[in-house]
Design brief:
Order of helices and strands: EEHEHHHEHEEEHEHEH
Largest sheet: 9 strands, mixed
Radius of gyration: 17 Å
Helix content: 25-40%
Number of strands: 9
Strand order of the largest sheet: 1-2-9-8-3-4-6-5-7
Shape: globular
Structural class: alpha/beta
Oligomer: single chain
Number of helices: 8
């Protein structure tokens, strides 16, 4: 297991389930984008590499954990969410990304892991999303299943926040095959109390971490892939340097 610290951000390279079992501290929110194990309706579809399922090329590093069937995915998700439930404070937020195929299963897993399910936040990727054939409606939304660890107190710093986020993906800005826009992640961290601590067990290229640092939060992230851990280190190191230098970020 590797560990790196960049100002208010601490990140680990290793298996999330193993690291979560050893992690201590109290977090104000978990905001994360785990592998969907989606991208197909059959076992053979799901066993394909993520690059083939999601982007149709190999311009990005592959990532782990995206080839489980529905039952094993639900079991694995419940395991790590139960560990996260131990770490998130009472009244803290949980926000987990998914797609349309895994949405029903995730809403069950969310509650099996100990969290109170409070709704969905659609992420509208706009009409710029990759088009299916002409008989289809576009799959232009992904979803954030959100809720809390127990009762959710009234916010003292704002809200209610928008129940849908519209933000197109700009491929040239992506550092991960399924990377999320920084502006999207900034919208999701907004409900977390100022100065709070955000946990992301599936950090990828650290989009959640960048958004957290820019908005004045502490961040702890975990990533299994060495390549994406290294990308995250470079990205958070630069972000921390910009913050110390007083550089305004777009």
């Amino acid at each position: 297991m590797q560990k790196a610290v960049f100002g208010a951000a601490t990140i680990y390279c290793g298996d999330s389930l193993e690291i979560l079992r050893e992690l201590t501290g109290v977090f104000d929110a978990v905001i994360t984008d785990p592998p969907y194990s989606s991208g197909g309706m059959t076992r053979s579809d799901r066993q394909a590499k993520p690059s083939g399922k999601y982007v149709g090329n190999n311009n990005y590093h592959e990532f782990f954990g995206d080839n489980r069937d529905v039952r094993s995915w639900a079991f694995w998700m419940t395991q790590w969410m139960s560990q996260v439930n131990r770490l998130v404070k009472s009244g803290g937020y949980a926000m987990v990304f998914t797609d349309w195929r895994q949405l029903p299963t995730l809403t069950d897993v969310f509650q099996a892991g100990g969290f109170v399910w409070r709704g969905l936040i659609p992420w509208d990727k706009t009409l710029s999303t990759r088009a299916p054939h002409t008989g289809y409606f576009r799959h232009q939304c992904e979803y954030v299943v959100w809720g809390s660890n127990g009762p959710l107190p009234k916010s003292l710093h704002g809200g209610p926040w928008p129940g849908m986020v519209t933000r197109r993906v700009i491929p040239s800005q992506k550092l991960h095959m399924t990377g999320k826009p920084i502006e999207l992640m900034e919208s999701l961290v907004a409900p977390v109390p100022p100065g709070g601590h955000i946990l992301d067990p599936f950090m990828g290229s650290a989009s959640t971490g960048v958004a957290a640092l820019r908005k004045g939060y502490k961040f702890t992230g975990i990533e299994m892939s060495q390549q994406y851990f290294d990308i995250s280190c470079e990205r958070l190191e630069k972000e921390n340097a910009d913050i110390r230098a007083g550089v305004l970020c777009d």
